[in-house]
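Lab notebook, bench 4. We co-purified these components, and the gel suggests they stay together. Before we commit to crystallization screens, I want a quick structural picture of the whole thing.
Request: model the full complex, all chains together.
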Amino acid sequence: MSNETRNTAVSLARATGPVRIYLDNAATTKTAPEVIAAMAPYFSESSANASSVHRDGVAAAKGVERARQIVAGRIHAAPDEIVFTSGGAEANNLALQGVFFAHGDRRRHVIVSAVEHATVLRAADWLESLGCRVTRLPVDGAGLIDPADVERALSAETILVSVMYANNEIGSIEPIADIGRLCREHGVAFHTDACQCLTLEPLDVAAQHLDLVSLNAHKLHGPKGVGALYVRDSVRLMPLFHGGGQERHRRAGTLNTPGIVGFGKAVEIAADADAAKMDRLRWAFWRNMEGTIPDVLLNGPHERRLCNNLNVSFRGVEGRRLVRELDEDGIAVGAGSACSSDTSDPSHVLRAIGRSDDDALAAVRFSLSRWTTAAELDEAAALLALAVRRLRNEPRGAAS
Amino acid sequence: MNGAAPPLDETLDLTGVPCPNNVARALVRLEGLASGAVLAILVDDGEPATNVADGVVADGHELLAREPVGRQWRLLVRRANLP
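Here is the predicted assembly.
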């Protein structure tokens, strides 16, 4: 298709309302029809409180327990070690605050990486304000932690190390099994935020020496508002919420039965082949982009990268403006991470891997799902090339 | 229970699991067994033992035996021929 024809197509698409291409699956995925179908009875005939002992309550609790077994089985845990939460943010906060407050002495030490999700970093800041010492470990240019840095940072006061499994912005896959082994050797609890990669990367709490794992449903075509924290049986944890005996006294509050059932179904239907397909499509998309758009910079690693993530800086272009342009063209992508998209500061992750502010602000995150097609990515690549050229050709200082 | 004990197909330890999660877990496990299979369920004394026994019967399964094991109970349940 010539550029002229393509420009005409863009104009037509903007005028008539284009077919949407959704490439912001790291922010959230669309809920699978099978998940919605599985949840539906728990809004109606099985909508009793799953903590009630009557038959209706048992019917609801069956849905919860079935889901608990599925989620636990996926990460090779025992069902009792799964604490359902409202999502990944709560799971991360429960892990950090729960371990900290379970220790009476506040003169403790927690280690996190510099590229953690804000829900870990801000929770660590909060603990620091209460007297906890916090070490924030740097990463290399690919966003990867050196386990030797973890070992050097460990001290007799260390009670917790938190390093994410796969980064939500640049997809770097951290050496969690190595870090887990180190923590186990030193008797320190190890937490990993696996919200981006449940069902996409292998998760085995025994083999990878994990003590706490944050999970959520909506990144794998499950419902929003539900997640879980895996808590190894031996880990002492203070709940965030008090006043209810749910989840073996680790998380007070009426269980979100439909959400939990949907979470279980989403895990159940996730196929191992999805990751390989997304990995292949993602790199083809990158090669297409790299071949047609000058001055593009891949953020994050080539190897050890989450299969559905592509984060690219388009030099000379403001990432936020590119997101809006693509939105007009019918393509949904993310600028930096969804959780920080209300700020105009450069991403802390991109800064941590050494990007300049200009390059960090020129970044856009594309993230695929199991439903993303090659045709969608070809279309997106073509429209992207035009959008970048339009923005680069704008007079300096042009307002959006 | 009279006569020889039926051969066990599986055992499920529900001690420490509160109501109604214990009932729900028993029913979920029974769902996964073949019709006629026998499941031994270990439950805490008191309400858990009563609720789990009542729950499996209410779901159509057959309670073969209820035996004290220290401060706990061992329930033998035959999986019903259910859809």
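Chain A has a mean pLDDT of 93. Worth comparing against the SEC data before the next meeting. Residues 33-269 of chain A form a domain with the Aspartate Aminotransferase; domain 2 fold (CATH 3.40.640.10).
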